[in-house]
Design brief:
The structure holds two protein chains of two kinds. Chain A is built from no helices and eight strands. Chain A is an all-beta fold. Chain A has one domain (2-81): RNA polymerase II/Efflux pump adaptor protein, barrel-sandwich hybrid domain (OB fold (Dihydrolipoamide Acetyltransferase, E2P)), CATH 2.40.50. In chain A, the strands form two sheets. In chain A, strands 1-8-6-3 form a four-stranded antiparallel sheet, with no helix packed on it. The longest helix of chain B is centred in the middle third of the chain and has 14 residues, at 112-125. Chain B has a single domain (16-288), classed as TIM Barrel. The N and C termini of chain B lie far apart (36 Å). In chain B, helix 5 packs parallel to helix 6 (142-150) and helix 6 (142-150) packs across helix 8 (177-190). In chain B, strand 10 (225-230), helix 10 (247-260) and strand 11 (264-267) form a beta-alpha-beta unit. Helices cover 39% and strands 16% of the residues of chain B. Classes of the chains: A mainly beta, B alpha/beta. The A-B interface holds A 8, 10-15, 18-19, 35-36, 38, 41, 43, 45-54 and B 3, 5, 7-14, 18-19, 22, 25-26, 31, 34-36, 38-40, 42-43, 68, 232-236. Strand 5 (47-52) of chain A pairs parallel with strand 1 of chain B.
Amino acid sequence: MIREIVVPKDLWPRRGDWRGKIINIYVSEGDKVSSGDQLFEIEIEKAVLVIESEHNGVIKKILVEPGDDVRPGDPVMIIETSDD
Amino acid sequence: MIDMSGKIRIRVRLGDYYMTVSEVVRSLEIATVCEDALCPNIHDCWSSKTATFMILGDICTRGCRFCYVKKGSPLPPDPYEPYKVLEAVKRLGLDYVTITSVDRDDLSDGGASQYVKTIRLLKSYDPSIKVEVLIPDFMGREDLLKMIVDASPDVIAHNIETVRRLTPLVRDRRAGYEQSLKVLETVKRLNNNIITKSSILIGFGEEFDEIIEAMKDLRRVGVDILVISQYMRPSSQQIPVVKYYSIEEFKALERIGYELGFSYVISHPLARTSYKAKEAYEAVRRVRE
């Protein structure tokens, strides 16, 4: 199944007003990833969020670059999952 | 883990337990301080199926300069809120409940009666449930503090937040260092059996000796559990971090805390008042037995 990986909008579910910056991307298009693998990092004022994959699959497309400003729900990657 | 900039790194993978907590608090429309303060531990706590409920709405009447909770004119208290908290406790199967609130200087009782209703409801549902409340200062009023004490929560926390000198910079002008000490002292005087707890955030520009002075002041008013943690700026709207302390410095403060006689000390960059609250409570009970 093709899925979008987004900046987690459920981390602080009812406070969607935080903003961040992509500072690292650990995968490339075509990479196979497993659930728990680190995908990318977002720096927010308070912390650095290390986003891990929730699925097994293949990264089909990366939609952001380091330095991009992001907000909760913004699409970051497209993954083709193999676990559903 | 802390990176080169001093910022905490939080691993994020929202699993089933996390989403269960999220679904419960959203469907019941109960605020949580985990969300409203952008707590860095939310992932850890919700993934362990625990949360800190925030009663009396999600808008605070005070404007402390470190805090991310929304400020302004709050709505009237929700009479169903205590029942919603009980329902959440049932659904999540909690045996240790941590409750805090916004400040409600607009209410004649500061919101004390809502605390009392919530504590009593939980205790009447199951007397074995332990309830910890992190209360506002209620303007230092003894009659309101007595209402809370008489509802018999197991732990009453009230945060001093910072050292004496920086209090006017960090906290709302209606808060006060002496007033917070008085709150903690009054609770102990009204019922010596209630465990008390207080937190100091560090990183606002305080001197090490000033932290020790605050710790001594808290011990002098009988505080049992001390929490020391790193201030992390939630957004550019709050005051900046002046210093990120090392783990070694936190360990040194923990050691000093025990030397001063606290029954339990949590001194860690990520510690927050309700973090690992049950463990702290049980440790103090063991010390007392």
